[in-house]
Amino acid sequence: MPYQCFIDGKFEDAENGKSYDTINPTDGSVICKVSYASVADVDRAVAAAKEAFDSGPWGRMNPRDRGSLLYKLADLMEEHQEELATIESIDSGAVYTLALKTHVGMSIQTFRYFAGWCDKIQGKTIPINQARPNRNLTFTKKEPLGVCAIVIPWNYPLMMLAWKSAACLAAGNTLVLKPAQVTPLTALKFAELSVKAGIPKGVINILPGSGGMVGQRLSDHPDIRKLGFTGSTPIGKQIMKSCALSNLKKVSLELGGKSPLIIFSDCDMDKAVRMGMSSVFFNKGENCIAAGRLFVEESIHDEYISRVVEEIKKMKIGDPLDRSTDHGPQNHKAHLDKLLEYCETGVKEGATLVYGGKQVDRPGFFMEPTVFTDVEDHMFIAKEESFGPVMVVSKFKDGDVDGVLQRANDTEYGLASGVFTQDISKAMYVSERLEAGTVFVNTYNKTDVASPFGGFKQSGFGKDLGEDALLEYLKTKAVTVEY
């Protein structure tokens, strides 16, 4: 596995020679030492990306040829999918079967989807008032921004790279990407595959290291024109401030969430149990759109909870590389500690801990799938996301649609949401009124590369995926001709 910085088409040590350990969350062992990039490394990577954009073959390439390279890259990722999924499992604790299908599978689909966009980026002709007796023609062009920075989180290391990088590259930009410090390995493997695909040097640069140093320098750098970030709301605010003060970089932010899932008594109960569990426990709860809060109608509440607990007891917790495992370790120790503290807070505030809430008695950073009921709106666990396998359940009175909507929207976040009901009118009424960038009706976690993804309010702005994502990495130029 590559373990060094990837700058200007080459793997090399950090300029100051520093490195750090990346840890396997399954047993706490060191996987390998990884280069710890410095500010000087950021400056070299940005210079390489700028050179590649201004003077290299990438900037002069036909869009269709650029698309061919991205298709080639997707094909190589597919050829190496088992290897990428294994690295992801070892480095992030993702269950291998999920890593193969989602972490890696959706990354491949994302590159293919955006490769297809390369030769379809086009402007318009616009009728304007003529300067008689002369005539005028106005047309617009969509142009790449230049050097872009991408800063991604640790929950879906390769997939978050793909969601942002594929749109960025399809638009014709070059990039410097900082993977999360705790999960750098699939990004570095991706860099290796990009060379095999024939992506010119300097187009893709990957810098493992700290947010405080590498992320901050990317935010401040005068030659970067756009920064795409996925992570927490407080860090998003810091990035936006730095981007504004430095050179007014364009920014897109996909931040925290506390997504409500409303389950009505007229739902398909089997599906609501299955999907409700998936909404919380998918990828060990390390999922930005995870249902942070379930609202269950009073008449089915008790049955719903007992069904969920029954299913949790069947979940197999264990080594993520074991194909029969359902639930792997949390991503890193600091996160596990935070989750345990979150559960303690829930108990202290008077919520009922129905199941779990503790670390699993085995090596590694395993957390029991957890269920809280009797959660009141003022409680910490009702307001803040856990980012772990913690189901937070509140009751609502039978038939009180507007009341539960008010509670569901009473949050500063607005990333995703869900509703389960077999009444189509109720489903449409609720989906229109939920203040979230995504609404799932009778499903959950159903993202697709063609569908735009992003939040409202303090969950950020800008979109990943779909045509909307491409526009995040383009600028519009208007040209007016007189003849």
UniProtKB/TrEMBL annotation:
GO terms, molecular function: oxidoreductase activity, acting on the aldehyde or oxo group of donors, NAD or NADP as acceptor
Classification via Pfam families: Aldedh
Which positions fall inside the Aldehyde dehydrogenase domain?
Answer: 14-479
Q: Which UniProt keywords apply?
A: Oxidoreductase
List the InterPro entries: Ald_DH/histidinol_DH, Ald_DH_C, Ald_DH_CS_CYS, Ald_DH_CS_GLU, Ald_DH_N, Aldehyde_DH_dom
Keyword Hydrolase on entry: no
Catalytic residues as annotated in Swiss-Prot or TrEMBL: 254
**Cross-referenced SUPFAM superfamilies:** ALDH-like (SSF53720)
PANTHER family from the entry? Answer: ALDEHYDE DEHYDROGENASE-RELATED
Give the family this protein belongs to, as stated in its UniProt record.
Belongs to the aldehyde dehydrogenase family.
Q: What is the designated name of this protein?
A: Aldehyde dehydrogenase 1 family member L2
What's the source species for this entry?
Poecilia formosa
